[in-house]
Write a structure and sequence with these properties.
The complex is a heterodimer of chains A (about 325) and B (about 775). Chain A is of the alpha/beta class and about 325 residues long. Chain A is built from 13 helices and eleven strands. Classes of the chains: A alpha/beta (about 325), B alpha+beta (about 775). At the A-B interface, helix 10, helix 12 and helix 13 of A face helix 24, helix 25 and helix 26 of B.
């Protein structure tokens, strides 16, 4: 920790507790958990893109448990309808009125499992919810929870019968993470913890922070300072993605804003009240890989290439 | 919050850069084509050198994108920008070169090209476009050629395309959607404003002196072309009458003003005497002491004769009286010269010097006949050659020049020493012209050259290679015959001349090097001052000149001639006029030759009939010599080789000692850096650390932060240093990217340690 936030031992403690809890659940993936927290505190949405059985759903559920938040899960299948996600109005014969039946989006944390299995029609039902934190049903807009957070998962290899997410929707995610296989020590620890008592599992479901606490942390992220030099650095990087010959679609202004926001929350997670160039570079890969459309190369290599070609702001 | 936004404009697309480079190259082409150097090879040399600098900077930038090589690119760009001055220096060593203004314009052109090619921000491109635009339009304005307009049009077309391509969206977005005409308020405002201005003008009229002056400057009312001319302000009748009078004083009746009474038709003798000073009247007693009666009589008769007929030229003269002359060149001009500036036009030559006066040895009015030559239906004249010339000609090439007479009161036609042919429109009579014994052209049986006569000349240039060869061959043969001093020598200042000769010549070989050394010595060590008068009236003018090292041009010429005669060279004094480059009439492109341009110089004899002019007076341009580039290179090669060798030695030594030198530089820099605020000090330290790692071959790549790079590249033997580096960077981050204002005391200590202890010599141990 380089510099503690002046006002908030409470915030620091809460973050430390969140970190500790999630690291207990998903072993050996401290860096991914750090990024997940950054995404959550930045009010972004997360796309977990990895093979089956690596703990994507577990991580999502554990995150919801940490906040005692209202958790909802949608198992995306080809026959899933938009109203299954957003909710619908049902005519009540008895009261002779339409009654609204809220869908899973009316929760604090929504897990959209295997999102690429459902049809584009249903995927797009999430558009408004993710971007505006509201849904419009039968001409009536309904506000979602202020801490509404979508964790979507997708399986990159089993593409038969899948509907790849359109670029417009990908841009609504703040970052994409691949959890990856744990190392051997972590795997040993997983095996060891498999037969633990139910009490321990219950303890894991105890909330650490109320949703209001999450909102307070998110407000603190907004107050993190970003110097003009850093903003210029972000702009230069974004412009470089747009003019790069191997990139078909660069970073949009919405993506740029999200990048700054994630960098701010990353800075807060590091205990700083301001963003430094390393923050931008650290969160670049997860933030950009979800929204860059490349010709052939892997986005990671291109992102490294772009970062290494733009002059980093220094003390001059 | 102490954070400044360094807004340097957006990044650059290829199209923007291409347009700016095209405009810069157009400007450069306009400059090089329209105001080209004397030799095309010089242009090629400059373009090649600057092109290599800019090209290598661009390639380095493209090749090593990751490395922080801004300083290298900047150094190459600066080198390219100053290439014109570098080229100019080299070319001047070769005896060529052009005006400094051209080098400055070239510098601007190369700055424009460098900015366009190497710019990383749009703002730099803007600077490049402004520079190229100014340059193109400036060159178009000052160039006489219509082709210059082509460059201006080309630049405008590219600029228009560039602006439209880059800013059309912005223009379109800001166009008016709806135009609503206001009621007549604008018209009323304009009307009221106009009335207000008219009232203010009426009110101010006649009340303020400054407005009178403005009025006079704006529209001169009484003569002269400058409003603050003293004669104009004195009120001498109508302006046009004054102008006409100064051109042709005898064409109208008397106007009893001082100005016209002072301006009778001036004879050539009057002009020279007025400008160089009247010959001194000799005190009889003084003369009697120094000369015997026979010599005194001789002397006096010569002076009297000389004053009458101008067949002698005394160097013992009073300083010229200061006079107020019209500043207007046109009305003051004796004649107009259309040709090379800085040339001297001879009207008289004197080959004998008696210690006080220059005399002509053959004073009879013998003249050589001229010969007519028909060239392109025009009759040109040339002298009938006295001897058939043998060997290579000391003159080369030819060019047409002309002299237009306005109020020149002499039959002698001032001519350049390389005169080959002359021509006057509709004159085909050979007997109109003659050549005096002193090689001057004159009009036979004429009181003076008729006013408004234009004489065309074909003049040549001196071939430096030939005259140098002639000098080495012929001068040795002249040693015994050259001394033409009368029997009453030695001069009173002979010992001084001997001293000067020994000092200037030392052990130079005979020939052109000695001549050059003498001329250069006078130009370097003596000052030209026509108003100067000797402090001791009893001293001879020449002696005073040699003591005080200051005097008029005839004294320069006399002293140089005497010194060269002592060395065995045959010399003679020439009087005439100097085509002063400052007297250019821009409207006609002609040089006005006014009485103040009366001048004296000397000629040296090389070969049988070849006299070469020499100009020992500083402030007057030396005669132009033509020589091939190869010859000039050969002559300048020792100097260029020495300069290159010394430069190479310095650069090599600097390269090997670069690390300790940089450490010393940093030590010295620390003193002023300590006085800066914390933010700037951190910036300087960051720069210095980057450079130190550069010197160790570990330049920080572009996208890597200093903290990460230094941590990866160096291991720290010292525990203290190991802790102080991250601590320092944490604080630097807080100041630069956070909201902290000042370094803490720990930060100051860390900074001090990093600056003074992490030197290159110490780092060599620590870098991986």
């Amino acid at each position: 920790m380089i510099a503690a936030l002046p006002e908030t031992h409470q915030s620091t403690n809460a973050i430390e507790a969140l970190r500790h809890r999630l690291n207990q659940i998903l072993l050996g993936k401290q860096d991914k958990i750090e990024l997940l927290l950054a995404c959550l505190l930045a009010r972004g949405h997360l796309l977990l893109d990895d093979l089956p059985g690596l703990g994507k759903t577990t991580l999502a559920k554990a995150t919801a448990d940490c906040f005692g938040a209202k958790f909802a899960r949608v198992q995306c299948t080809p026959d899933l309808l938009p109203t299954d996600v957003t909710g619908f109005n049902l005519f009540n014969q008895k009261s002779r009125e339409f009654e609204f039946h809220a869908g899973p989006v009316f929760s604090d944390i929504l897990l959209a499992d295997e999102i690429n299995r459902t049809t584009p029609r249903t995927q797009s039902a999430l558009f408004e919810a993710m971007a505006e934190r509201q849904v419009t049903i039968d001409g009536q807009s309904r506000i979602l929870s202020p801490s509404f957070f979508v964790i979507a998962t997708q399986n990159p290899i089993d593409s038969h019968g899948a509907y790849p997410l359109p670029e417009a929707q990908l841009d609504r995610f703040a970052m994409k993470l691949a959890i990856g296989y744990p190392d051997s020590n972590a795997q040993m620890a997983i095996l060891e913890s498999a037969g633990k008592s139910r009490i321990a599992n219950d303890a894991r479901q105890t909330p650490i922070l109320a949703t209001s606490g999450l909102e307070r942390l998110q407000a603190e992220v907004d107050a993190i300072h970003v110097a003009p030099d850093i903003q210029r650095y972000i702009v230069e990087l974004c412009e470089a993605t747009r003019s790069h010959e191997s990139i078909v679609l660069g970073v949009s202004p919405r993506g740029m804003l999200l990048w700054q926001q994630v960098a701010k929350s990353w800075a807060m997670l590091q205990g700083r009240s301001f963003v430094i160039p390393e923050d931008i570079q650290t969160v670049a890969e997860p933030v950009l890989s979800v929204r860059l459309v490349t010709r052939s190369q892997q986005p990671q290599a291109l992102i490294e290439n772009i970062i290494s070609s733009i002059k980093v702001p220094t003390y001059r | 919050m102490n954070v400044s936004l360094r807004d340097q404009g957006p990044l650059i697309s290829h199209r923007k850069r291409f347009g700016a480079v095209a405009m810069a190259l157009t400007a450069l082409s306009a400059l090089l084509v329209q105001l080209r150097y004397t030799h095309p090879l010089v242009t090629i040399l400059e373009v090649a050198t600057a092109g290599v600098f800019i090209g290598s900077a661009y390639c380095s930038k493209q090749q090593w994108k990751k490395a922080d090589i801004t300083w290298l690119v900047a150094a190459a760009a600066v080198a390219a920008i100053f290439t014109p001055f570098l080229t100019d220096r080299i070319v001047r060593m070769l005896g060529m070169g052009s005006a400094t203004e051209i080098a400055m314009l070239s510098t601007l052109a190369w700055a424009s090209v460098a900015a366009a090619v190497l710019a990383s921000r749009a703002r730099m491109l803007g600077v490049s476009v402004v520079c190229s635009g100014f340059l193109t339009l400036f060159v178009s304005c000052i160039s006489d050629s219509l082709w210059a307009l082509l460059f201006a049009y080309t630049w405008c077309v590219i600029c228009l395309w560039w602006l439209v391509a880059n800013h059309w969206e912005r223009v379109e977005a800001s166009k008016a959607v709806n135009i609503r005409s206001l009621p007549h308020t604008r018209f009323a405002t304009l009307l009221a404003g106009s009335f207000l201005c008219m009232f203010a003008a009426w009110f101010a009229s006649g009340r303020f002196n400054v407005l009178h002056q403005l009025h006079a400057q704006w529209m001169p009312t009484s003569g002269g072309t400058t409003g603050n001319d003293i004669h104009a302000r004195a009120g001498v009748g109508e302006g046009e009458v004054l102008v006409a009078a100064t051109r042709e004083p005898h064409t109208f009746g008397a106007i009893d003003t001082d100005f016209f009474l002072e301006s009778p038709e001036p004879s050539l003798y009057d002009v020279v005497s007025k400008e160089m000073g009247e010959p001194k009247k000799k005190n009889k007693a003084e003369s009697a002491q120094s000369l015997d009666q026979k010599d005194l009589r001789d002397q006096h008769s010569k002076i009297a004769e000389g004053n009458r007929s101008s067949q002698s030229f005394s160097i013992d003269r009073e300083p010229p009286a200061p006079s107020h002359k019209l500043k207007d060149l046109a009305s003051n001009a004796l004649m107009f010269w259309k040709g090379r500036s800085g040339v001297s036009l001879a009207i008289q030559r004197f080959d004998q010097f008696d210690g006080e006066q220059w005399l002509q040895s053959q004073a009879d009015q013998l003249h050589t006949e001229s010969v007519a030559v028909e060239i392109k239906n025009r009759t040109w004249f040339r002298y009938r050659p006295m001897n058939i010339p043998t060997g290579p000609s000391p003159f080369i090439s030819s060019q047409q020049e002309a002299l237009k007479f306005t109020r020149f009161r002499s039959a002698t036609i001032p001519t350049h020493h390389t005169l080959q042919l002359w021509h006057i429109d509709k004159v085909d009579r050979v007997d109109f012209f003659g050549k005096t014994h002193d090689d001057c052209l004159f009009m036979v049986d004429r009181e003076h050259v008729p006013d408004y006569t234009t004489v065309n000349f074909i003049n040549r240039e001196i071939n430096l290679e030939v005259i140098e060869r002639l000098a080495s061959q012929a001068l040795s043969a002249n040693i015994t015959t050259a001394r033409q001093r009368p029997p009453n020598e030695p001069l009173s200042c002979q010992s001084m001349l001997d001293d000067l000769r020994q000092k200037l010549i030392v052990d130079l070989p005979r020939g052109w090097p000695q001549v050059n050394a003498v001329i250069d010595g006078f130009r370097r060590d003596f000052a030209f001052d026509r108003q100067h008068s000797a402090t001791d009236a009893n001293e001879s003018s020449l002696r005073s000149f040699l003591i005080e090292r200051r005097g008029s041009d005839y004294l320069f010429a006399t002293a140089a001639a005497m010194l060269l005669r002592d060395l065995g060279y045959e010399t003679r004094l020439v009087t005439g006029f100097y085509a002063n480059p400052d007297h250019l009439d821009r409207s006609s492109g002609e040089l006005a030759i006014v009485p103040e341009d009366a001048h004296a110089w000397l000629e040296i004899r090389l070969g049988a009939d070849t006299w070469i002019p020499l100009e020992p007076t500083p402030g007057y341009l030396q005669p132009s010599y033509h020589a091939s580039l190869w010859y000039r290179l050969r002559k300048a090669s020792p100097m260029v080789a020495t300069a290159l060798f010394v430069g190479f030695l310095i650069l090599t030594a600097g390269w090997f000692a670069r690390r300790p030198l940089f450490d010393i530089y940093c030590r010295l820099l620390w003193l002023p850096v300590r006085l800066l605020d914390d933010r700037r000090r951190i910036g300087w330290l960051s720069f210095v650390l980057d450079q130190r790692f550069c010197f160790l071959g570990k330049a920080r790549p572009t996208g890597v932060t200093p903290r990460r790079w230094f941590a990866e590249q160096a291991f720290f033997n010292s525990e203290d240093l190991r802790e102080s580096i991250p601590s320092f960077y944490d604080e630097a981050d807080r100041i630069y990217f956070g909201v902290q204002e000042q370094l803490s005391s720990v930060g100051h200590r860390n900074m001090n340690r990093l600056w003074n202890e992490w030197t290159i010599s110490n780092l060599r141990r620590d870098v991986r």
